[in-house]
Amino acid sequence: MILKEIELFEGVDFEVMSEIAGICSEENYSNGTTIFERDEQAKCLYILLEGTVYLVIENGGSITYSLTEPGDVFGWSSMLEHGIYTASRICATDLKAVKIEKDELNKIFKNHPDVGFKVLQRLAGVISKRLSNAYRDLLSARSMDTTPSYG
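Structure (tokenized):
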């Protein structure tokens, strides 16, 4: 997959895309590998190339979401002010991903604030979509637990 084809970077100028590509590394992870843990300092943004990664949130109970589509973004907490991962990421299969160091990406965004703004707007869209899906799943689960009693 070519970086410029990823929705997060769609429409970014060739020169800036070349800078971003220069700070990316392609990483391979084995099934069962924990890429990062919840509450860790968020230092990297990841883009899924191949495989499946689980987003695991535990707090008394556990919620697991799967990312399976090439181009899916994870580790986006690295781009937010608090900079702490909000969930653990565990490989459900062997996995290939692009890894981008947040400090290096932020340097590029400082030199090209229009690109930074565009990418962060798209990232907000990713977050919004994921939150909407979580709401839908929670409401769906709740409706299954409230089967009416007729006796």
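The chain has three helices and eight strands. The two ends are 57 Å apart (CA to CA).
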